[in-house]
Write the structure tokens for this entry.
Amino acid sequence: MILSALAFYLFAGIAVLSGLMVITARNPVHSVLFLILAFFNAAGLFVLLGAEFLAMILVVVYVGAVAVLFLFVVMMLDINFAALRRGIRQHLALGLAVGIVLLAELVIVVGAWAVAPEVAAHTAPIVNSAVTATNTQALGAILYTRYIYAFEGSGLILLVAMIGAIVLTHRARAGVRRQVISKQISRSRAETIEVVKVPTGHGI
């Protein structure tokens, strides 16, 4: 019991510190590396809770794909992060206000859960019925039955985000040449090939 408590405080402390370093590190590559460290510690917390499947998904998907993709994108793009940070003081008050509102909402949610402990009784039958199942089966049973609408909604949000990213990437911009397949296929021979007769002993 003491060992599990020490492991929890270790993983939780490192995860919180890594999260703080993600937003305070000046080098964006270091921020991504701290993000990977936070994901690993979150996976450790899932293991302590008995959710090995979620821990594996967190490591495989977020660490192995998303965070590494972020790292390669940050390293490959030539982004002037100093210019991006110039206007941070102008929006600091707005950011603090939004953060305070979110903190107040979290306090209200946690306080309501503590004041009304009978709410936990509504979720007890679901948890008790899934005790005999494996971790993956219990997660799938709850996700695709009780939270199916939230799951489908998140899928639609991701679809809209993907379409928006594609539209923003392929929009027409001045000074940027784009490949138009239809124009390449419809070109005639006169537009493609130019025959030049060069006299003997002379260059082009």
